[in-house]
Model the fold of this input.
Amino acid sequence: MSLPLAVLALPFVSFVLLAVVPPLRRAGRVAGGVSIAATAVAFVCALATWQGHLEGEQLVPWIPGDAGPMATVGLLVDPITNAMLVLVTLVSLLIQIYSLAYLSDEPSPALGRYYTYQSLFAFSMLGLVLSPTFLQMFIFWELVGLCSYLLIGFWYQRPAAARAAVKAFWITKLGDLGFVTGIVMLWAATGTFEFSTLFRMGAAGQLPAESLGLILFLIYLGAVGKSAQFPLHVWLPDAMEGPTPVSALIHAATMVTAGVFMVTRAQPLFALVPDLVWLIGTVGAFTALLAASMACVEHDIKRVLAYSTVSQLGYMMAAAGAGAADAGFFHLLTHGVFKALLFLAAGSVIHAVGTNDMFRMGRLWHGLPHTGIVFIVGTLALAGVWPLAGFFSKESILAAVWGAGRTGTFAVLALTAFLTAFYMFRAVFLTFFGHAHAGGHPHEAPWPMRGPLWILAILTLVLGLAFLASPPPAVEAHHGPGWLGPFSLGLAAAGLALAWAMYQQRAIAPASFSRVLAPIDFAARRRYGIDALYLGLYKGLILGFSKLIGLIDRYLVDGLVNVFSALSLRSGDRLRRIQSGQVHDYVYGVAFGVLLVVVFAHWWAR
Amino acid sequence: MSLHGYLTLGALVFAIGLFGVVTRRNAVGMLLGIELMLNAVNINLVAFSRFHADLGGIVFSLFTIAITVAEVALGLAIVIVIFRVRKTIEADRLDLLRG
Amino acid sequence: MNFPVLSVITWSPFVGALLVMFTARRSPLAVRLISAVTTGISAVLSIVVYVTYDRQAAATDDAARFQFYEKVPLVPPLGISYEVGADGISLLLVLLTAVIIFTGVFASWTVKVRSQEFYALLLTLVTGVFGVFVSLDLFVFFLFYELAVLPMYLLIGIWGSSGEVRPRGIFAWAYRETGVGTKEYAAMKLTLYLLFGSAFILVGIYALYVSAGAGSFSILELEAVPFDPVLQRWVFLAFYVGFGVLAGIWPLHTWSPDGHASAPTAVSMLHAGVLMKLGAYGIVRVGMGLVPEGAVEFAWLVGGIACINIVYGALSAMAQTDLKYVIAYSSVSHMGLVLLGAATLTEAGLNGSVFQMFAHGVMTGLFFALVGLVYEKAHSRDIPTMGGFGRSMPGVAAAFTVGGLSSLGLPATAGFVAELLTFMGAWRSEHPWWLFPAVLGTFLTAIYVLRVVRAIFWGPPSPHFHDLPDAQGPEWVALVLLVGVIVVFGMAPALALGLVDSATVPLLARLPLP
Amino acid sequence: MTVETVGFWLVAAVLLASSLAVVLTKNLFHAVLYLAVALVATGVVFLLLESPFLFGVQLLLYAGGVVTIVVFAIMLTERLVGERITQTSRHVVNGAIVSAAVFVAVVGFLLQAGAPAPVTERPDQLAGLGRALVGPYAVTLELLGVLLVAALLGAIYFARADD
Done:
C-alpha cells in the first residue's frame, strides 16, 4: 500500500511545506513549482497503482474507545479508486501548470497562497477517493468543501467572490448536515463506519431495515449538496467567481463529482433501498433538465459550463438511479476530462478578451485557432458525438436507463441531450463565429496554457478511439437497443442545427423563440426563483430569527436580570436612609434589638 | 442578700446608663453613660461569680475593666480629634456617616 | 515522597505573581519574563504529566485512576486536606489551562497600564484554575474555585473596556439605572452571577459532607458513599445550577457576553477558554462523580437546556455587530455542546464533551487573542465598519479562519472530533432527538463565523482603517501555538482521547444507567 | 437584717442616686465627679460580694484612672473651645421609655428564673484568680496587653498635635 499512500502523501507534504514555510509560499512561482512537482510525482504513482492493479484495504484506529476503536481511517484501493486517482492527479497536474500562466499577473504571495490551496485540494480529493470508511470520506468531503470555499474566494476583495464563496460553503454544508447525521445514525445502529463491514452486514441482512431508508436518504443529501443536485444546485453557478482553473478542477472535473463517487462507492447499501434509488434517479434527471434549460439563456460563458456541469451530474445520478452506478461513474471519468478541457479553453478565451459575456465575444476563431479547435472537441464530446469519449459514456447511461425500463427518465435525459447540444453550440457560435465585438486583437495564450488544452483534447479523442477498440466494462454491461446510437446522434445534430440557425445564420430570431416559450424563458432567466427563495429564507428566516433572538436575549432575558439589579439598587437606596449617621439612633436600634431578644426569649423560646 | 437583688441593681444602673447615652447631646456625656452601663455589667458578673462560686466572672470583670480603660482612652482621643476638626462635640451634629 | 509535580504546576504561577509584585516594580519586561517563565514551567510540567500518566494502570486498577497523588492534612478534625491528583480529564484540562495562560501572557504583552498588578492577578487566577482541576478535596476545590473567580472582578473592572448598550424595550428603565455596557457593570455582573452559583455549590458540598458523616471532604472517600437518592437529586440540581452559571447555561448566561466583551484580551482568553470549562468540569467531576443517581435523573434537563444553549447561542451570535460579543455568544453555544455531550451519559458523548472543552478552550482562546489584536490595531470592535483586513493582516486572517473552521466543526480541526463524538453520543443516548439541535447548531455556526470572516477580512478594504499592521513578535507565539494545537489535535485526536477515555469509562461505569 | 443587707441597701441607694446624677446634671464636670462616686459605690458592692481584690482594682483603675482621664479630656476640650461645657439633654421622654422598657424586660426575665441554690464553700479567691490569669486565661491576658498597647498608640495617634 505504499504507492497509494505516496499518492496521498505527496500533495500533503507539499501543502505542509507551503503552509508552514512562509518564504517558500511568498515566492509564488517557486511555490507553484513545489506543488506541481508533488502532483506530477503523485500522478506517476497513481498511474503505477492503476497499472499494477494494487488493490486492497488498510485500516488504523483513529478515535480510540473502550471496546476497540470507535472510528478508523485508512486506505481503500479498488478499480474505482484507481480510476479516480489517475483522473484527479492528471487534471490537478494539468491545471496547476495551466494556472502558472493564467495567474501570472497575480502578486507572488497570492500565487503562493493559490498553490497552497491547490495542494490541499489535491490531498483532500485523493483522501476522499481512498476512503475506506464513511467517516474518512466525510472528513475529506468537508476538506474539499473548504478548498472550494477558499479558492472561490481567492480574489477575496471582490464582494461577488466573497459572497459566492460563503454561499457555496453554506449550501453544501446544508447537504453535509444530512451526511453527518446519516453516518452518525448508521454508526449508532452498527457501531462502524467501514464500508467493507457495512457491505458485509448489508449482504447478511444485519442492517436495521426500518431506519436504513432514512439513514441513506440523509447520506444522499450530502451528495445532493456536493454534486449540486436540485434543490441544492444554486451554489455551483455562483462558484464561477473563482479563477477559471479552479472552476475547471473543483467545480467541474473532481470535487463536484464526489457525490456521484460516493453513491457509486456505497452502491451495495443504496441497492438495499429501491425507493431511494428511484428518488436519486428522478432527482438526477430533473436536475439535468432544469440546469440545461438555464444554460440555454445564460450570457456568461463560465456559467453556461457550470449549468452544463450540473446537468451532467444529474445525468450521472440518473444512471445511479437506474441501478447502473458503473455507467454513471464511467461518465464521471470522461466528463472529468472533457469538462476540464472546456473550462480551460473558456479560461483561455477569457484570458484573451477579458470578459465572460458571450455576447461581447465573436469571431474569435481567427485570433484563437488552437483554443477554438479544442473547445469544439470538448463541445462535441459533451454533446455525445461519435467517436469522442463522451459519446460512449452518455450512450451507456441512456442504455442503462432504457434497460431499467424508466421511460420517463429516458425521455427527460433525451431532451436534455438535445438541449446540451443546443446550448453548447450556442456558446461555440457566439464565441468563435458570428460578429466580432471585442476591441483589440485577442491572441493565443502562452504554451503552459495551450499544452494542457491539447493534452486534454487529445485525451478526449484517444479515449474515445480506445473505447471503440475495446469497449470498457460499463459499456459492455449496458447495451441499448440498436436505434439508440443513431437516435442520440440525431439529438446532438438537431441541437447543433438549431443553434446554427439561431446564432450563426440568424435564420430564427432568438427573441421570437423565447416568445413562444415565454413562461419557461421567463422562469429560466430568473433561475426558477430558487436562488431568490434561498436568499429569502436566509435573510428572512435565519437572519430575521437571529435578530429576534438577539433582541430577546439583550432586552428580555438580560432585561429581567437588569430589573432585578435595578430593584436591588432601588431598595438599597431606600434602606440606606435608616443609616442616619446619628449615634443616638443607633443606640436606640441596639436597645430595641435587646428588647426583641428578650421578648423572644420570653415568649417563643419556652 | 440574694442574687436577684444584685442583678436588679445591675439592671437599674444599666437602664440609667442607657438613658444617659440616648439623651446626652455631648459626646463626653454619652461616654459617661457607657461607663455606667459597663459598671452594671461588672456588678452582674461579680454577682454571678459569687453565687456560683466560679472565678470566671471575676476574671472577666477584670478584663472588662481593662478594656473599658482602653475604650475610654481611645474614645476621648477620638472626641478630641473630632473637636479639633468639627469644632463641636454635639453628637447630633456629627452625621458624616449618614447613608 | 515523589516530586510534587501537580503542586508545582498549580503554585508556580502564584509564585510568579508574588515575584512580580515584590521584585519587578517599574520593569515591564521583567514582569512579562517572570510571567512567561513561571507559566512556562507549568506548561512544560503539564506536558510532562500528560505524557507520563500511566494509562494502562488506570484502566486496570481503579485505585490508580488518580495519579501524581499528594495529600497533606490541613484541618484533620474536619477532614480537610490538601489532596491533589489527576486523571485523564484533569490532565487534558490542565494542559489546556497551561496552553492558554502561556499564550495569554504573550497575547497581552502590550498591556501598559499597571502591568505589574495585571500580571499578578492573572497569575493568581491561573493558580486557582489549576487548583480546581487537580484538587480531590471538595473544600480545597471550592477555595481554588473562588480564587479563580474573584480576581476577574478587578481584572475586568480596571483593565476592561466599556461598550455601549442602548436602553430599549419594556425594561429600559432598568438599564438606565444599572449602567449596563460599562466595564464596571460587566465586572460586577460577572462576579455576582458567579458568586450566586458558588452559593449553590457550597450548599451542595456541605450537604454531601454532612450526610456522609462529616468526616471528610475527600472526593475519593465521598465517591464510595452511597447517598440517598432523594438527596442526590437535590444536590445534583444545586451543583448543576451552581457550576452551570459558570458554564453559561441558558438563561443564566448573560454575564458571559458582557463580561467577555469588557474583559481585556488575556482575561477573555482565560475566561472563555478555561473558566467556563471549570463549570462543565465541576458538573462532570462533582455532579456525575459524586451524585451519579442525580446525574442520571436530571440528564434530560441538562441535555435539554444544552440544546437551547446551542441554538440560542448561535442565533444570538449571529445577531451581534460587536466582534467580541459574537465570540462570547459562540462560547455560550459551544458550552451547550459540552454539556450536551456530558448529558448523553455515553462513552462517545462524554469523551466528546471533554474533548470539546479542550477544543473550544483553545479555539476561543485563539479567537479572543485575535480579537484583541484587531481591537488593539483598529481600536474598534464594530463589525459593520470593518472590511478587507485580510490584505493588511494576513496572519491574523488565517488564524481567525482556522479558529472559525474549528468552531464550525470542520474536519482536521479539534472541533470536528469533539462535535462528531457528541453527535454519536447523542444519537445513542436516551434522547436521540438531541442530535438535531446539535447539528443545526453547527450549521448556524457556519453561518455566523463565515459572515464575520467575510465582513472583517474579505471584501474591499474599509475606508475607516488605514495601515493596520499584522501580528508581530510575541503575538505570533500565541497564534502559532494555538493554531498548531487545534490542527494537531484535530488530526490525531487519539493524543487526547486515549487519556480521556481512561477517565470517562470508570466514571460512566459508576452511573446507575437503566 | 444582717450587716450585708443593710450595707446593700445603703450602697444601692448611693449608687443609684449618683448614677442618676451623672446622667441628669447639667454641668459636665459635676457629672464626672458623680461618676466617680458611682464607681466607688460599685467598688463597695464588690466588697459586699466578697471580692476585695476587685474592689481595689475598681478604686485604683476605674475611679482613679478613668475619672482622671475624663477630667483631663474635659479640661482639654474646654481649653480648645474656650468656653465652659454645659450639656443639654434631648428626647428625655423617649430615653426614659426605652430605658424603662429594657429594665422591665430584664427584670421580668429575672423574676421568671428561679434563684440558684446558695453556695456555701468559698474558694481561696486571690490565689485562684492568680492561677486562672496565668493558666487558662493566659493567652487572653496577653491579648489584652496587646489591646492596651494598641489603644494607647491609637490614642496618641489621634490626639497628636496637627503638623
The radius of gyration of chain A is 31 Å. Strands of chain A lie at 56-63, 71-77.
